[in-house]
Design goal:
- By secondary structure, the chain is α/β, with parallel strands linked by helices.
- The protein has one domain: Rossmann fold (3-Layer(aba) Sandwich), CATH 3.40.50.2000.
- It is about 45% helix and about 20% strand.
- It has 7 helices and 8 strands.
- An 8-stranded mixed sheet has the order 3-4-2-1-5-6-7-8, sandwiched between helices.
- Helix 3 links the parallel strand 5 and strand 6.
- Helix 2 runs parallel beside helix 3 and helix 3 runs parallel beside helix 5.
- The two termini are about 15 Å apart.
């Protein structure tokens, strides 16, 4: 089954600097070299709602949170996810080539990914760079537990979870009782585009086989 287009949701993308931005840009460049079209939706208040930016063969759509100021981090990302869903839905309905799957990065974009997966009935891929248990040193406040609930739902709903260390894979299995087969460990030094494309094709084939039953 041919893979034509991927939708990437990420909080961080160049010109922002960070591990998520670096990994996403590397992935998008390598997918483009394989003639796979990519739409990236990301947060950037300075560039929000300008004409999409065509870069490395991908269309970059910048958005802003619709409600500011936000009372807390959860509220901010909840409203941001509503905007991610809105722009993504427009891409599905208006683009001549609709995405074959959704790839979300970190818990920050999981909620939008879950909704889009359900609405458009396509596979969801999740890349995690860290876990709330580690970021909060095991804190159990309602705030921390809310983020953990989002991580848990994303891990459960994703067809595949990508991480960049065996330690993180082991921790996802320990904390969230995830299936070992679901989690793929990659190295940022390798060709993550080719490896990720293999996962994409695997998920599309599985989805296509199930739909034909």
């Amino acid at each position: 089954m041919a893979l034509k287009k991927v939708l990437v949701l990420t909080f961080e993308y160049p010109p922002k600097i960070g591990s998520i931005a670096h990994a996403c840009e590397k992935l998008v460049k390598e997918l483009g070299s394989q003639n796979i079209k990519v739409d990236v939706i990301t947060w950037d208040d300075w560039r929000a709602y300008m004409e999409f930016e065509d870069r490395n063969g991908a269309r970059i759509h910048y958005i802003s949170a619709p409600i500011l100021p936000a009372s807390n981090t959860i509220t901010f990302f909840a409203t941001l996810n509503v905007e991610l869903e809105r722009v993504a839905s427009s891409i599905f309905h208006e683009s001549p080539i609709t995405p074959d799957l959704i790839h979300v990065h970190e818990w920050i974009t999981v909620q939008a990914g879950l909704s889009l997966k359900s609405i458009f009935n396509i596979p969801l891929i999740l890349t995690l760079y860290s876990l709330e248990d580690h970021r909060s040193h095991g804190a159990v406040s309602p705030f921390n537990e809310s983020i953990k609930a989002i991580e848990r739902r994303g891990i459960q709903a994703a067809s595949k979870v990508i991480v960049f260390s065996k330690f993180l894979k082991d921790e996802i299995i320990r904390i969230y009782s995830a299936s070992e087969d679901k989690i793929c460990v990659m190295n940022l030094d390798e060709d993550i585009g080719s490896r990720t494309a293999e996962i994409y094709y695997e998920m599309l084939e599985k989805t296509h086989s199930i739909s034909n039953l």
